[in-house]
Design brief:
alpha+beta, Gamma Fibrinogen, Chain A, domain 1, 9-stranded antiparallel sheet, two-stranded antiparallel sheet, 13 strands, elongated, binds 2-acetamido-2-deoxy-beta-D-glucopyranose
Length: 451
């Protein structure tokens, strides 16, 4: 037993050397001790020599078997499972259609005055016993559907769980980043979930049918839109989990405005919270989710990474004029990339201040704070000058994290600023009054969200 173990270690040592030299095949060795191939490795002196201890040794190895972790097979299985799920959904769709047709049929038969049987009378309106084609399988269909639905929802749960554990283990082995695979699967699961919901709502006319979809709700919501889909319609703080590896956190959800499902990432209402903050503060977020806050760059990154997001900015100036800017694409990179902003696809009434001109464009700009200069202004820090954390260019045509002024102000333009606001150009001179904003909100929602 000990011998086998020693020989195994040797095999591993050799493998590591092959790997290190870069000449080995790319792949992964299953490092579990006791692999059967070990017993076939032979170690013996190569040729004749006096003192055994100093003899050169020759190693004969059987062809090296490289074993991929079995998680790879699981992955394939998951993909197949999803495929079959899709087929189940299609089957369901047609059997549902069948079901509705039969109901129509049923009504026609009733209208035509066919005398109902004894059994039917006792079961009343919801009876499905009137048989089309003399077939007696309506209840079977409904029951089948129920079974399929149940199986499907638990399969979905399984697929999801498998992907999660799979990703953790694969990363442990440092094999490959499954992020893409997960995204694809997530999207498929989302698609299927959507289809199942659609079917379940069109199928409600089938009597006796109780779809058990609550299993699906075990997938933790990734943002406010998922919570909204579950029927939550109240504006308040909820927990979301955009990426299970990074845990959950609290966000404020706007479930009422413009179809709801919005995850609010920034809010200004009365100047109670200072936005002149450090990199560390902007990274983790600050303020109070129920009043004024910056959600935090890490969280914004995770949310915009989990799904393709749109951004909606709501503005109201001190005189009560309102406007909005909507961007069909919004993404914030990770800290390593200085939380670079990607924003495009403007529409709205407030003007496209984030992409004001060639010289003032916040798209693709890094995040800058008073203590961390990543802006394009060569001889100073825009964040320090304006007392704000923002995706400064050199420096800005918009800055929603500026100082909160209750009324119009003069001098340095360090207030909340939106460069395409009506009359903004006439405020160019420091001697003129500058607009103050009493309400600012930045919120995001998945691009494919359908309220
Ligand atoms: C009745 O339904 C069963 C199963 O759904 C099917 O095998 C059978 O062919 C059907 N019979 C008729 C007469 O349609
Ligand atoms: C989701 O469903 C739509 C419509 O059936 C389809 O066009 C799209 O390709 C699907 N997406 C994925 C990721 O399967
Ligand atoms: C700001 O608004 C919040 C929430 O409405 C409130 O709790 C807080 O007292 C207000 N602060 C100031 C300074 O008005
Ligand atoms: C999320 O978790 C991954 C894996 O643990 C980690 O590498 C990454 O830095 C985390 N990201 C954030 C924004 O916390
Ligand atoms: C920001 O705060 C720092 C101290 O925390 C202060 O020195 C600086 O003047 C402030 N900047 C602005 C523009 O208000
Ligand atoms: C626009 O700005 C000019 C100059 O500051 C001012 O006289 C005028 O009242 C402003 N108009 C509006 C609609 O705010």
């Amino acid at each position: 037993m000990k011998l086998v173990y020693v020989c195994c270690s040797l095999l591993i040592a050799i493998w590591q050397e092959v790997e290190a030299s870069g000449s080995g095949p790319s792949g992964v060795v299953d490092r579990a001790p006791g692999a059967s191939s070990c017993s076939q490795v032979r170690l013996r002196p190569a040729g004749k020599c006096e003192d055994e201890e100093e003899c050169p040794y020759q190693i004969t190895m059987p062809p090296l078997t490289i074993q991929l972790p079995k998680q790879f097979r699981l992955l394939e299985k998951t993909v197949k499972e999803l495929q079959s799920l899709k087929e189940t959904v299609n089957r369901l769709k047609s059997s549902c259609l069948e079901c509705s047709l039969k109901q129509v049929d049923l009504n026609l038969q009733k209208d035509s005055g066919d005398p109902p049987t004894e059994g039917e009378q006792s079961r009343g309106q919801t009876s499905m016993r009137v048989i089309h084609n003399g077939n007696d399988s309506d209840n079977d269909i409904v029951q089948n559907m129920q079974v399929k639905m149940n199986r499907m929802s638990s399969s979905l749960k399984n697929a999801r769980a498998q992907i999660n554990s799979l990703q953790g283990r694969l990363e442990e082995l440092n094999l490959l980043n499954l992020q893409n695979v997960e995204n694809i699967v997530d999207r498929k699961v989302e698609n299927i979930t959507g289809m199942v919901n659609k079917i379940s709502s069109t199928c409600t006319s089938c009597p006796g049918q109780q779809l058990q979809l609550q299993h699906l709700t075990n997938i933790p919501p990734r943002d406010c839109s998922d919570i909204s889909m579950l029927g939550q319609r109240i504006n308040k703080v909820y927990q979301v989990t955009p990426d299970p590896r990074n845990g959950s956190f609290a966000v404020y959800c706007d479930m009422e405005s413009f179809g709801g499902g919005w995850t609010v990432i920034q809010h200004r209402i009365n100047g109670s919270v200072s936005f002149n903050r450090t990199w560390a503060d902007y990274k983790k977020g600050f303020g109070n989710l129920n009043s004024e806050f910056w959600l935090g760059n890490d969280k914004i990154h995770l949310l915009t990474k989990a799904k393709d997001m749109i951004l909606r900015i709501e503005l109201e100036d001190s005189e009560g004029t309102r406007g909005y800017a909507k961007y069909d694409q919004f993404y914030v990179s990770n800290e390593f990339l200085h939380y670079r902003l990607s924003v495009s696809g403007y529409s709205g009434t407030a003007g496209n201040a984030l992409q004001f001109s060639k010289h003032f464009n916040h798209d693709q700009k890094f995040f800058t704070t008073p203590d961390k200069d990543n802006d394009r202004y060569p001889s100073g820090n825009c964040g320090a000058y304006y007392g704000s954390g923002w995706w400064f260019d050199a420096c800005m045509s918009a800055n929603l994290n500026g100082k909160y002024y209750k009324t119009k102000y003069k001098g340095k333009r360090d207030g909340i600023f939106w460069g395409t606001w009506p009359n903004a150009t006439s405020e160019y001179y420091p001697t003129s009054f500058r607009q103050a904003y009493k309400n600012v909100k930045m919120m995001i929602r998945p691009k494919n969200y359908a309220p």
